[in-house]
């Protein structure tokens, strides 16, 4: 059977087209139930006859059909492994796909989980369930009708299989079909059509065995707020917004809440470089960080300036009604800000949010705020991310959730509620527990970290794994070479090894041998897909989230000493001046003679008594590396610095014992040089072989404005930074040396690093050759080849290289530009997130390290801000803010009166002055570090000034200071700590 | 190679509800017009084509110089055949290309030795275009040739095939599947002899899949051949019933 | 036009038949041959019709576009005719072979539709001076069995009757710029008023007599014809255009007779067509009808 679907569509050029599509209706679509005796079952995910879910509403076995609104709103309930035997109609699936891609993804995951017995019924193509659109019927009504038709059909269809005598004799109950819908209209119609129907919440609450499931229901309203007065202006409808945008009365942009001030935010709008400021609760109008919002620009006379005030919301309780008093408080703050702004004449475009274009709500980590009332089910959830407002939730398990990190999602935010409404999703574990905290970091950075699935593991080689004669035949045998690896201590995923030997003609042969991961991960299988999705291995302190299963990362692929391993080798013939004479790539079998740490290798090189092959080879390598490095520097490669630290972690408790800055030795640089060389050689090769689809990495030159802060900072110190080319920048950085401040150059380089752009992967066909440039390395072309165990990009490069030299088979996706581009996109995202996660982990461990400790440390002022000094502690590679009190500091007039210390900020030379003490950038200071744990979610390192000593401000080197830390006030913590001094 | 959209749902159905190996609905009729020597109408889903054959007749003009049969084709597409109106029915590059391809495929099928110094005109008019325009045109032309009583070696039929993102070959692709960016392979074949008279491919996919995609298109050709054969028999029974031909077929 | 080879004797036979008011196929001079009409068979056109008048086969598709009204007539929509003579009809039409005939047909249709009384151009205007519908009436001649003008005009009128324009609402933006919003309901559409839409009637002079609906053979015997465009207004038939075709000439009185005949036949034909179309529409209702097309 066949029918036509007709619709009209507007083209980009404003034309209106009539589109006609064929639509086939079939009679071979199975119902997916094992009760059925009629259908041809073409799927394995069958609905079963067993039914163990007890519902007080439907006291017989039943299947569920979900309406679109139930899938969209109650996805958290669905994700819980309770509901089974659920029929998902394609009508619903299409609507969900259209409305929310993230929920579409989640429902698909549930459907794919065979244990859940979710069955997708293609009702749109079934001859008995297709609903042609009636005249005067909206698209929505038609879909609702299609859902009802399908439910009805299912019920009758199953009944027809359950009327036989033998079935009746078996004494089993007849399985029925129940429609869950939250749409009152659809429900009423369904009831009229004799369909069993319930709302999601009725149904969930009727499940006697799963009382806690109700916590996960999405709530549209809370009983006690129904009568409450609106607190926010109404949002415009989507249509009004679109019209407003077209008429240019409104602007659209993504909303970014301020981290410091909960009553302030910024909307990034294309035409406005700095975005548009939003201040005050009513102007923010229920926007949550990340939402795409429509804003109205205020007249210029009402423009304001960013407050630069840290304002944190005070604790409120779930049963509080919004008090007038608090609103007063906000008004005061706003007035102050505006008044200040007028004086400052630093006003920026300010607006107010009038509508939401698209919500970008996600799941949020956080904790439950202790409730004042016992036995209440209404609670306030405090997200870890300060940009997210508190969320009102309903849960019956508050007692157990107290002191746990939990995940909550927002359902909606009605006008009459101060906070958004949400529901509990799941608990991550007890607060402060290392595992919980790591979990939070991984979740917040969207790092896929669940265990590898059975399917993924099934593609691993079977153990015991041996090298077969065919393998030897296909590969170059390098087992006799003196190959060794040099890595940080404790490294188990060794992906590179080196060798160097003298040739008879006096030249040197240098080989870089990279773990042959692509031999084990075959394109397109589940293992490959999982690795591609993860993109990179993520390193947290004391924890590694592998990109590939451990069997590969730490065993079969890892080039450990003394074991035969597969490698992908890049071998050069060089003269003594490190000029490449020949290069070749091949797959090989190697047997690393020794896996060394950087330190061991350094010792071996320096110890002139050692004269074995490895030592000789290392010395050659070291010498060549120095030449290579110099050549690179002369080309304008940048030496950048960012403080990196290492934690010595207790193996039992996983708590940090010791913090140290990572040491750099010659050998680090030696390995790095050869890896760079290999990467560049491979990049040249694959770009030549695959001009359209080579995976490369580029580092764009930053726009000159990026350098402004650096140039300014250096100028105050009397140095000129040239940013014309990489080379001139490199030279001018070299010149920034101060005899009295040995750390000065490093700090300048740290600042330079911050001016840089992010390096990214891309596909050669998507850009012009000139754009391939890698700025930081001063290389015209670059890629990643040397770490396939921990980076998927390297696996892609390996495959390309292997295909180009005929060492491996090609496959369809290899040359597919589009899918490779998508992969690169994902890799770039994963990389960035992995970096952030790593930093967050270091931050977390730094906090743990300082728990209950106080230390005075030498530091430097990195730069001077209006109300604070940014201080860097080289010892820990740590950076923090030392808040100064200035006369504009907040509204706390009472305390200011007591204080006599006044800092004056000089705009001209960026200094802070207090009496005769002047702070310049790069000045050395001594600060006292301690941990402020007043806010369990936001523990924070507090920097307090020790030297130079300013009376009334600096820490007294007495003993009473410890007491302050113990009981800090709940809000405005950092500043108050300082003020009390 | 994979396109922008997934052409095959996880439930194994294509955008219009067909399974991967299924052809669209085919309807055809021979002898729709009086004036041409042979004519046929062919419908493959929403692609609808009229074909008319004039000849064999004496070749005109310069063409008389050769001894071979001249197969003269014209491919034309009604201005309202596509969803966005076409400005002219023929003369554009695409129709020139199709015209040549038609000549190519038909030459392989017509028993040319029987028609020396003659010309056969084959005119194709696409009334509605919804994918596989060339293939349907060729199939209609075959029917029209049979209607005109021109000797063929065998039915020459064409079918298209594509490849879904999950590397499952799809038969007889519709317009929406064509424009979704997937590859498109057109095969014109003499199915019984398993000969390929013409092959064209756009976009690209990996050579590993070529074999299966061609086989899919060939399977489509065989299926279409059976449908055409049945239509010819039906037609003969119909027009020949007066002469008692029905029993012969 | 399609060439028909006739001997002198055949011509005489036809001529005598006309004189006797008993034509070769048994018709009188005022009779039409049987017609078959089907509408809506081209699903991706906004409107379509296929008319088969004996061996004359016409397929019309109406396509729509959004356009800007002409400066001189800001309140009028646009109408454009396009005729394609398919080579299916005769090998003579191959390539550009049919373009002269096509041009002739386009011109006579254009003339007939030119008057705003003959066609309500206002109904095609969306926003005066800014946006209007432009209808393309694409006519495809698939087979020629004589009397193309009449067949083409009948098919065009039926196709216009069948045409559904999606309901469009205009919203006024700032600075006088407007934007169109199309209704998402495929049933929500406007129709075109066809009451006044003209028909063409070819009155063919053979010998001293005038006849309508000439077959291809009769056309070959005629030296001159009169094409009369007839438009209805307030239930009365008016001439909305006329022109002569063919190489011959005719007397003034004959011409007036021709016009008279054309007008009365056109009036009758038009009423019949509209009646049939409306009957069919009522029978089918708003749903999609089953299409027979060329498969009959």
UniProtKB/TrEMBL annotation, chain A:
<feature type="domain" description="PIN">
    <location>
        <begin position="62"/>
        <end position="188"/>
    </location>
</feature>
<keyword id="KW-0694">RNA-binding</keyword>
<dbReference type="GO" id="GO:0005730">
    <property type="term" value="C:nucleolus"/>
</dbReference>
<keyword id="KW-0597">Phosphoprotein</keyword>
<comment type="similarity">
    <text>Belongs to the RNR ribonuclease family.</text>
</comment>
<dbReference type="GO" id="GO:0071031">
    <property type="term" value="P:nuclear mRNA surveillance of mRNA 3'-end processing"/>
</dbReference>
<dbReference type="GO" id="GO:0004519">
    <property type="term" value="F:endonuclease activity"/>
</dbReference>
<dbReference type="InterPro" id="IPR029060">
    <property type="entry name" value="PIN-like_dom_sf"/>
</dbReference>
<comment type="subunit">
    <text>Component of the RNA exosome complex; within the complex interacts with EXOSC4, EXOSC7 and EXOSC9 of the exosome core complex (Exo-9). The catalytically inactive RNA exosome core complex (Exo-9) associates with the catalytic subunit EXOSC10/RRP6. Exo-9 may associate with DIS3 to form the nucleolar exosome complex, or DIS3L to form the cytoplasmic exosome complex. Exo-9 is formed by a hexameric base ring consisting of the heterodimers EXOSC4-EXOSC9, EXOSC5-EXOSC8 and EXOSC6-EXOSC7, and a cap ring consisting of EXOSC1, EXOSC2 and EXOSC3; DIS3 associates with the base ring of Exo-9.</text>
</comment>
<keyword id="KW-0007">Acetylation</keyword>
<dbReference type="Pfam" id="PF17849">
    <property type="entry name" value="OB_Dis3"/>
</dbReference>
<feature type="domain" description="RNB">
    <location>
        <begin position="475"/>
        <end position="807"/>
    </location>
</feature>
<keyword id="KW-0255">Endonuclease</keyword>
<dbReference type="InterPro" id="IPR022966">
    <property type="entry name" value="RNase_II/R_CS"/>
</dbReference>
<dbReference type="InterPro" id="IPR002716">
    <property type="entry name" value="PIN_dom"/>
</dbReference>
TrEMBL record, chain B:
<dbReference type="GO" id="GO:0005730">
    <property type="term" value="C:nucleolus"/>
</dbReference>
<dbReference type="GO" id="GO:0016075">
    <property type="term" value="P:rRNA catabolic process"/>
</dbReference>
<dbReference type="InterPro" id="IPR027408">
    <property type="entry name" value="PNPase/RNase_PH_dom_sf"/>
</dbReference>
<dbReference type="GO" id="GO:0034475">
    <property type="term" value="P:U4 snRNA 3'-end processing"/>
</dbReference>
<dbReference type="GO" id="GO:0003723">
    <property type="term" value="F:RNA binding"/>
</dbReference>
<dbReference type="Pfam" id="PF03725">
    <property type="entry name" value="RNase_PH_C"/>
</dbReference>
<dbReference type="GO" id="GO:0000176">
    <property type="term" value="C:nuclear exosome (RNase complex)"/>
</dbReference>
<dbReference type="GO" id="GO:0071051">
    <property type="term" value="P:poly(A)-dependent snoRNA 3'-end processing"/>
</dbReference>
<dbReference type="InterPro" id="IPR020568">
    <property type="entry name" value="Ribosomal_Su5_D2-typ_SF"/>
</dbReference>
<dbReference type="GO" id="GO:0071028">
    <property type="term" value="P:nuclear mRNA surveillance"/>
</dbReference>
<feature type="domain" description="Exoribonuclease phosphorolytic">
    <location>
        <begin position="22"/>
        <end position="150"/>
    </location>
</feature>
<dbReference type="InterPro" id="IPR036345">
    <property type="entry name" value="ExoRNase_PH_dom2_sf"/>
</dbReference>
<dbReference type="InterPro" id="IPR050080">
    <property type="entry name" value="RNase_PH"/>
</dbReference>
<dbReference type="Pfam" id="PF01138">
    <property type="entry name" value="RNase_PH"/>
</dbReference>
<comment type="similarity">
    <text>Belongs to the RNase PH family.</text>
</comment>
Automatic annotation (TrEMBL), chain C:
<dbReference type="InterPro" id="IPR050590">
    <property type="entry name" value="Exosome_comp_Rrp42_subfam"/>
</dbReference>
<dbReference type="GO" id="GO:0034476">
    <property type="term" value="P:U5 snRNA 3'-end processing"/>
</dbReference>
<dbReference type="GO" id="GO:0071038">
    <property type="term" value="P:TRAMP-dependent tRNA surveillance pathway"/>
</dbReference>
<dbReference type="GO" id="GO:0000467">
    <property type="term" value="P:exonucleolytic trimming to generate mature 3'-end of 5.8S rRNA from tricistronic rRNA transcript (SSU-rRNA, 5.8S rRNA, LSU-rRNA)"/>
</dbReference>
<keyword id="KW-0271">Exosome</keyword>
<dbReference type="Pfam" id="PF03725">
    <property type="entry name" value="RNase_PH_C"/>
</dbReference>
<dbReference type="InterPro" id="IPR020568">
    <property type="entry name" value="Ribosomal_Su5_D2-typ_SF"/>
</dbReference>
<dbReference type="GO" id="GO:0034473">
    <property type="term" value="P:U1 snRNA 3'-end processing"/>
</dbReference>
<dbReference type="GO" id="GO:0000177">
    <property type="term" value="C:cytoplasmic exosome (RNase complex)"/>
</dbReference>
<comment type="similarity">
    <text>Belongs to the RNase PH family.</text>
</comment>
<dbReference type="InterPro" id="IPR027408">
    <property type="entry name" value="PNPase/RNase_PH_dom_sf"/>
</dbReference>
<feature type="domain" description="Exoribonuclease phosphorolytic">
    <location>
        <begin position="197"/>
        <end position="264"/>
    </location>
</feature>
<dbReference type="GO" id="GO:0071028">
    <property type="term" value="P:nuclear mRNA surveillance"/>
</dbReference>
<dbReference type="GO" id="GO:0035925">
    <property type="term" value="F:mRNA 3'-UTR AU-rich region binding"/>
</dbReference>
<dbReference type="InterPro" id="IPR015847">
    <property type="entry name" value="ExoRNase_PH_dom2"/>
</dbReference>
């Amino acid at each position: 059977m066949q029918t036509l679907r007709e619709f009209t569509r507007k083209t980009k050029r404003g034309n209106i087209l009539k589109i006609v599509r064929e639509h086939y209706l079939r009679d071979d679509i199975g119902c997916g139930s094992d009760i059925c005796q009629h259908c041809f079952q073409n799927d394995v995910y069958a609905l079963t006859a067993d039914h163990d879910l007890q519902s007080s509403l439907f006291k017989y076995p039943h299947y569920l059909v979900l309406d679109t609104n139930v899938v969209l709103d109650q996805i958290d309930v669905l994700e819980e492994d309770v509901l089974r035997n659920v029929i998902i109609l394609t009508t619903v699936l299409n609507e969900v796909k259209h409305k929310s891609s993230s929920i579409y993804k989640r429902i698909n995951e549930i459907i794919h989980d065979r244990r859940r017995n979710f069955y997708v019924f293609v009702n749109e193509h079934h001859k008995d369930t297709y609903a042609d659109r009636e005249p005067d019927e909206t698209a929505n009504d038609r879909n609702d009708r299609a859902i009802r038709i399908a439910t009805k059909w299912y019920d009758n269809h199953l009944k027809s299989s359950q009327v036989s005598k033998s079935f009746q004799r078996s004494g089993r109950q007849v399985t029925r079909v129940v429609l869950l819908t939250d749409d009152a209209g659809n429900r009423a119609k369904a009831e009229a059509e004799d369909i069993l129907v319930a709302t999601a919440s009725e149904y969930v609450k009727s499940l006697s065995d799963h009382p806690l499931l109700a916590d996960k229901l999405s709530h549209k309203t809370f009983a006690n707020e129904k009568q409450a007065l609106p607190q926010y202006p109404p949002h415009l409808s989507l249509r009004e917004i679109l019209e407003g945008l077209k008429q240019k009365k409104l602007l659209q942009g993504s909303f970014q809440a301020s981290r410091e001030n909960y009553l302030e935010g910024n909307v990034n709008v294309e035409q406005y470089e700095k975005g548009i400021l939003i201040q005050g609760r009513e102007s923010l109008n229920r926007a949550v960080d990340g939402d795409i919002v429509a804003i109205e620009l205020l007249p210029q006379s009402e423009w304001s300036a960013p407050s630069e005030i840290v304002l944190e919301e005070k604790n409120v309780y779930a049963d509080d009604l919004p008090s007038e008093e608090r609103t007063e408080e906000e008004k005061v703050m706003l007035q102050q800000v505006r008044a200040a702004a007028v004086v400052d004449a630093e006003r920026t475009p300010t607006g107010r949010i009038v509508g939401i274009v698209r919500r970008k709500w996600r799941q949020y980590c956080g904790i439950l705020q202790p409730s004042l009332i016992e036995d209440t089910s209404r609670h306030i959830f405090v997200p870890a991310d300060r940009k997210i407002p508190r969320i009102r939730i309903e849960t019956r398990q508050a007692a157990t959730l107290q002191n746990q990190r939990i995940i909550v999602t927002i359902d909606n935010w009605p006008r009459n509620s101060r906070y958004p409404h949400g529901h509990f999703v799941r608990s991550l574990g007890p607060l402060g527990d290392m595992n919980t905290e790591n979990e939070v970091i991984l979740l917040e950075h969207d790092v896929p970290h669940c265990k590898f699935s059975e399917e993924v593991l099934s593609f691993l080689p079977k153990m015991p794994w041996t090298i077969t004669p065919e393998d030897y035949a296909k590969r170059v045998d390098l087992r006799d070479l003196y190959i060794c690896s040099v890595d940080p201590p404790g490294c188990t995923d060794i992906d590179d090894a080196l060798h160097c030997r003298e040739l008879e003609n006096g030249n040197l042969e240098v080989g870089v041998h990279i773990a042959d991961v692509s031999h084990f991960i075959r394109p397109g299988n589940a293992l490959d897909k999982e690795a591609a999705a993860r993109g990179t291995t993520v390193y947290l302190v004391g924890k590694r989230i592998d990109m590939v299963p451990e069997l590969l990362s730490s065993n079969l692929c890892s080039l450990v000493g003394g074991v035969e391993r597969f490698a992908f080798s890049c071998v050069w013939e060089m003269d003594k001046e490190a000029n490449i004479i020949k290069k070749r790539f091949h797959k090989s079998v190697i047997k690393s003679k020794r896996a060394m740490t950087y330190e061991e290798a350094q010792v071996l090189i320096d110890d002139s008594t050692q004269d074995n092959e490895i030592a000789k080879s290392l010395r050659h390598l070291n010498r060549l590396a120095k030449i290579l490095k110099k050549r690179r520097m002369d080309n304008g490669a940048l030496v950048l610095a960012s403080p990196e630290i290492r934690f010595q972690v207790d193996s039992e408790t996983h708590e940090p014992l010791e913090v140290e800055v990572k040491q750099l030795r010659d050998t680090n640089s030696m390995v790095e040089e050869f890896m760079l060389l290999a990467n560049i050689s491979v990049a040249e090769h694959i770009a030549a072989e695959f001009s359209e689809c080579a995976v490369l990495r580029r580092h764009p030159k930053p726009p000159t404005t990026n350098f402004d802060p650096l140039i300014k900072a250096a100028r105050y110190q009397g140095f000129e930074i040239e940013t014309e080319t990489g080379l001139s920048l490199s030279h001018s950085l070299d010149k920034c040396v101060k005899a009295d401040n040995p750390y000065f150059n490093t700090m300048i380089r740290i600042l330079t690093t911050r001016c840089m752009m992010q390096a990214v992967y891309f596909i050669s066909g998507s850009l012009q050759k000139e754009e391939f440039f890698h700025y930081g390395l001063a290389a015209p072309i670059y890629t990643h080849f040397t770490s396939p165990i921990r980076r998927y990009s390297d696996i892609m490069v390996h495959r390309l290289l292997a295909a180009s030299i005929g060492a491996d088979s090609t496959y369809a996706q290899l040359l597919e530009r589009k899918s490779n581009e998508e992969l690169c996109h994902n890799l770039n995202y994963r990389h960035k997130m992995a970096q952030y996660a790593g930093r967050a982990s270091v931050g977390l461990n730094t906090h743990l390290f300082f728990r209950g400790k106080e230390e005075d440390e030498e530091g430097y002022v990195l730069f001077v801000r209006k109300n604070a000094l940014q201080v860097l502690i080289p010892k820990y590679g740590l950076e923090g803010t030392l808040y100064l009190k200035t006369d504009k500091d907040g509204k706390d007039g009472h305390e200011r009166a007591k204080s006599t210390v006044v800092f004056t900020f000089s705009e001209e030379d960026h200094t802070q002055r207090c009496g005769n003490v002047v702070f310049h950038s790069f000045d050395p200071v001594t600060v006292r570090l301690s941990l402020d744990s007043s806010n369990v979610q936001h523990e924070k390192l507090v920097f307090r000034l020790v030297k130079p000593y300013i009376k009334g401000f600096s820490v007294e080197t007495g003993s009473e200071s410890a007491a302050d830390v113990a009981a800090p006030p709940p809000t405005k913590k950092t500043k108050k700590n300082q003020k009390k001094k | 190679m994979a396109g922008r959209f997934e052409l095959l749902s996880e439930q194994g159905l294509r955008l219009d509800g067909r399974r991967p190996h299924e052809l669209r609905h085919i309807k055809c009729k021979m002898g729709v017009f009086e004036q041409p020597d042979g004519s046929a109408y062919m419908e493959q889903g929403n692609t609808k084509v009229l074909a008319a054959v004039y000849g064999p007749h004496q070749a005109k003009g310069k063409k008389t110089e050769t001894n071979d049969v001249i197969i003269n084709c014209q491919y034309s597409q009604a201005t309202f055949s596509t969803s966005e109106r076409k400005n002219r029915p023929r003369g554009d590059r695409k129709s020139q290309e199709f015209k040549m391809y038609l000549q190519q495929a038909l030459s392989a099928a017509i028993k040319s030795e029987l028609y020396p110094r003659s010309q056969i005109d084959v005119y194709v008019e696409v009334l509605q275009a919804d994918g596989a325009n060339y293939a349907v045109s060729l199939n209609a032309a075959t029917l029209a040739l049979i209607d005109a009583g021109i000797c063929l070696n065998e039915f020459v039929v064409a079918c298209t095939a594509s490849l879904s993102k999950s590397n499952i070959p799809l038969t007889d692709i519709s317009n929406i599947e064509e424009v979704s960016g997937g590859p498109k392979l057109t095969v014109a074949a003499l199915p019984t002899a398993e000969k390929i008279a013409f092959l064209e491919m756009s976009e690209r996919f990996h050579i590993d899949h070529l074999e299966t995609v061609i086989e899919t298109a060939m399977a489509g050709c065989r299926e279409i051949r059976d449908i055409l054969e049945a239509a010819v028999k039906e037609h003969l029974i119909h027009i020949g019933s007066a002469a008692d031909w029905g029993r012969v077929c | 036009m399609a060439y028909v080879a006739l001997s002198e004797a055949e011509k005489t036979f036809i001529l005598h038949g006309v004189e006797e008011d008993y034509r070769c196929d048994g018709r009188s001079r005022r009779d039409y041959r049987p017609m078959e009409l089907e509408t809506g068979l081209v699903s991706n056109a906004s409107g379509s019709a296929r008319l088969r008048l004996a061996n004359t086969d016409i397929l019309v598709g109406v396509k729509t576009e959004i356009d800007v009204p002409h400066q001189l007539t800001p309140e009028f929509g646009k109408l454009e005719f396009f005729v394609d003579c398919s080579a299916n009809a005769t090998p003579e039409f191959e390539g550009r072979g049919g373009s002269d005939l096509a041009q002739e047909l386009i011109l006579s249709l254009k003339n007939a539709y030119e008057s705003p009384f003959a066609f309500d151009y206002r109904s095609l205007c969306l926003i005066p001076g800014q946006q209007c519908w432009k209808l393309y009436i694409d006519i495809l001649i698939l087979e020629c069995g004589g009397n193309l003008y009449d067949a083409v005009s009948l098919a065009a009128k039926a196709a216009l009757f069948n045409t559904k324009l999606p309901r469009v609402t205009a919203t006024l933006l700032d600075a006088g710029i407007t934007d169109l919003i199309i209704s998402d309901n495929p049933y929500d559409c406007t129709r075109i008023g066809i009451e006044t839409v003209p028909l063409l009637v070819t009155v063919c002079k053979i010998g001293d007599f005038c006849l309508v609906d000439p077959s291809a053979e009769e056309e070959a015997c005629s030296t001159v014809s009169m094409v009369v465009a007839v438009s209805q207004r307030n239930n009365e038939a008016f001439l909305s255009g006329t022109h002569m075709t063919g190489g011959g000439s005719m007397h003034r009185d004959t011409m007036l007779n021709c016009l008279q005949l054309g007008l009365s036949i056109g009036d009758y034909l038009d009423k019949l067509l509209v009646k049939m179309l409306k009957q069919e529409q009522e029978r089918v209702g708003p749903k999609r009808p089953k299409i027979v097309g060329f498969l009959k």
